[in-house]
Design brief:
Chain lengths: ~375, ~325
């Protein structure tokens, strides 16, 4: 892990030893996070496969929104919210298992409601249009439910290792923020305001804001109509019984994420947006005292030919003049483009590695084609562990 | 000249251009390049973002954008691009102020968290507010003339675009009547009219192409007009049909005065092979896209990355008839 790696970085970057993490029996959760389109799902699936095949661990991978063909290769043909064993793996004598599941956000939310309230209340909640809107479209619901599912899988204690892919959010930070936001919301001042008249005594500590609250009620009635307000207070009253439970669970999951059994892996591609998001996330993890294990830099290009782009392009132009060497000239231009891309990627990646010189990093070379079978995932796993 | 047959902007007739694409395909750069192109020749365009990412500010290397239309760039021939980052909460306050003259009471609502509450509990409402603001800018007039020749929206990614644009369906569930319903119907009418065009940005990679196909099908089913497929970051067609041998490379390297040792020859050979594998895959993806039967525009890969200077190259490519 301290072995310095090569490459064009300004200073040596410690290299990330993925196998050490996957083999460590004290590591029970690996969270892959990063912005959209950087290969998070593939990375999560490849790590889980490797943990099962190489390290004999009973592993479950929780995917959020996998590409169709990748899902199929894991036997995930339907979104049924239950881990299914992936049979096509080669665990050999290590004796590991791989299970995979796709998150069903709505169903997970329903389960949470059922856990925290009686069946009659639950039925009322399910029928409320606000619940329906919120459980399927609230922008933080997917993140919250991913956390919830992680908490459930962890609580069952059936797994040696849980690998989590995080939702394709607007921002990678949503995964950390949404649960708190939802808990704050469900526990919030507005909800208590709406409930206040219904509560015993009527008078509350909210007298100070009651004036603006009355404006609020009026405006809401004006804008969205009285029926809506009835639905809303029905929803709020029904949820009231669950506040404590919601917040407690969010806090529990947060604590698990801060524990030593968890390893966060940032996933990025050498693109400015992805690297910037990774840097935000790294800063945030450190503020939250959550354990950052390293950075996986996907889709990196390399060249083994030590010829600069300028020199190669000049040579190609020379061959054009000479004539008769069309194929070589084009091959040189292919190399020049690769050399330029490599240089650019190194300078983009340096934005992260300069800011976080201590974060172990592994680069995964860009594959010529996409991954959609177990063999492909195995290859990615090898690349991740630099074997 | 605007309106003349030579005008390259004739290929982009809509007034509201919605630019979507899978994350990482470069939709913000494409949206910015389009806003610059449509502003050329003394016009004015508005570039809008709605996801709070401050992607426009990053691209133009400015301070984070406020909820306010600001000039962000000048275009060729005296045009102007303004930019706006729409914030749902502020849009709601603006809306309340406009229709209910709330003033200070609106600010008080914000203080107690009412606005956050309203946009959280009814997520569809957030999208109505965001698209509502876009509609307002698109149709705004001053002294009988449109304020913006075109509005370009850096929209949510393909995975969310259908839900984002299908505003009436989302709000109909909650608001059966009242101004919210009227507002969302107005937005829906604009989004389904020929004034709107949704462009999908993709790369020649499997997942972005798959998401493009899915998004086109979804938008078609919703009756939302689809514009162009914009294929970003394409590479020049090198080594199209050539079979490259190591012997040939060695001769060529020698002729160009480059080293001919085995490592260089084998390395270049391997790179050429990998390039051809990638190219074959790209060709088949290009065919998948062509099957969608939409006009396609290809933009070059910019090896130096995208900044204000290189945006002009994308603009030129967008406006070049293909």
């Amino acid at each position: 892990m301290t072995e310095p790696v090569r490459s064009g970085y300004a200073r040596p970057v410690p290299s990330l030893d993925v196998d050490r993490i996957l083999a460590d029996p004290n590591v029970r959760i690996v969270v892959c996070c990063g912005s959209g389109g950087v290969g998070k799902t593939t990375t999560a699936a490849a790590l889980a496969l490797r943990a099962a095949e190489r390290h004999g661990r009973r592993t479950v991978v929780l995917t959020i929104d996998p590409a169709r063909r990748l899902a199929q290769s894991l036997g995930l043909t339907e979104l049924d919210n239950t881990p299914r064993q992936v049979k096509e793996i080669d665990a050999g004598e290590a004796g590991g298992e791989l299970h995979a599941m796709m998150l069903d956000m709505k169903r997970t939310f329903d389960e949470v409601v059922l856990t925290h309230t009686d069946p009659v209340r639950a039925a009322e909640i399910f029928a409320n249009p606000f619940y329906q809107a919120m459980s399927s479209t609230f922008s933080g619901t997917q993140e919250y439910m991913a956390m919830e599912k992680l908490g459930q899988l962890h609580a069952r204690g059936e797994w040696d290792l849980i690998v989590v892919d995080t939702p394709p959010s607007r921002s990678a930070l949503d995964f950390l923020d949404a649960p708190a936001r939802l808990a704050r919301f469900l526990d919030g001042r507005m909800l208590r305001l709406l409930l206040a008249p219904a509560r015993a005594g009527g008078r509350s500590m909210f007298t100070l804001v009651t004036a603006s609250f009355n404006v609020f009620t009026k405006v809401v009635q004006k804008i969205i109509g009285a029926q809506l307000l009835t639905d809303l207070s029905g929803f709020v009253a029904a949820l009231d019984s669950m506040f404590g439970g919601f917040r407690q669970r969010a806090e529990q999951t947060y604590r698990i994420l801060q524990a030593r059994e968890t390893a966060f892996l940032l996933v990025a591609a050498p693109e400015p947006d992805a690297v910037r998001e990774a840097a935000f996330f790294a800063r945030r993890l450190s503020e939250e005292r959550m354990p950052l294990a390293g950075l996986v830099l996907n889709r990196v290009h390399h060249t083994a030919v030590d010829l600069s782009a300028e020199r190669t392009l000049a040579a190609a132009a020379e061959l054009d003049e000479l004539g008769g060497h069309e194929a070589t000239a084009e091959a040189l231009r292919v190399h020049a483009a690769l050399a330029q891309q490599t240089a650019r990627e190194q300078s983009v990646a340096a934005v992260f590695t300069d800011a976080f010189p201590g974060v172990p990093t592994v680069e995964v070379t860009a594959q010529p084609a996409d991954i959609h079978d177990v063999d492909g995932l195995r290859t990615v796993g090898d690349a991740l562990s630099r074997r | 000249m605007p309106g003349s047959e030579q005008d390259p902007r004739a290929a982009w007739p809509a007034r509201l251009h919605v630019v979507t694409g899978k994350g990482g395909t470069g939709k913000t750069s494409v949206a910015a390049a389009l806003a610059l192109g449509l502003a050329a020749g003394g016009r004015r365009t508005l570039l809008v973002e709605v996801e709070g990412r401050q992607g426009i500010a990053e691209l133009f290397e400015t301070e984070p954008l406020p909820y306010e239309e600001r000039r962000i760039a000048t275009a060729a021939g005296g045009g102007e691009v303004r930019a706006l980052a729409v914030d749902a909460e502020l849009a709601l306050l603006e809306y309340l102020d406009l229709f209910y003259k709330l003033g200070a009471a609106g600010r008080a609502l914000r203080k107690v968290g009412a606005i956050d509450f309203a946009t959280t509990i009814a997520p569809g409402m957030r999208d109505v507010l965001l698209t509502g603001k876009v509609k307002e800018a698109t149709t705004r007039t001053a002294e009988g003339r449109r304020v913006y020749h075109a509005v370009v929206l850096d929209a949510p990614p393909t995975g969310r675009i259908g839900r984002f644009l299908n505003v009436t369906a989302e709000t109909a569930r909650l608001a059966k009547m009242g101004p919210i319903k009227t507002q969302s119907e107005g937005v829906a009418a604009l989004l389904r009219s020929p004034m709107t065009s949704v462009h999908v940005v993709t790369l020649l990679e499997e997942m972005p192409v798959q998401e493009t196909v899915d998004a086109i099908n979804e938008l078609t089913a919703l009756g939302i007009p689809i514009g162009k497929l914009i294929v970003n970051a394409t590479r020049p067609p090198l080594l199209a049909d050539a079979r490259v041998t190591q012997a040939e490379l060695r001769r060529g390297l020698a002729a160009a005065g480059l080293p001919t040792e085995r490592g260089v020859v084998a390395g270049l050979h391997a790179e050429a092979k990998a390039h051809q594998t990638r190219r074959a895959l790209e060709e088949s993806l290009r065919l998948d896209l062509a099957e969608l039967g939409r006009p396609m525009v290809e933009l070059p890969l910019l090896p130096e990355g995208v900044d204000r200077a290189s945006l002009d190259k994308l603009t030129a490519a967008l406006l070049t008839p293909q």
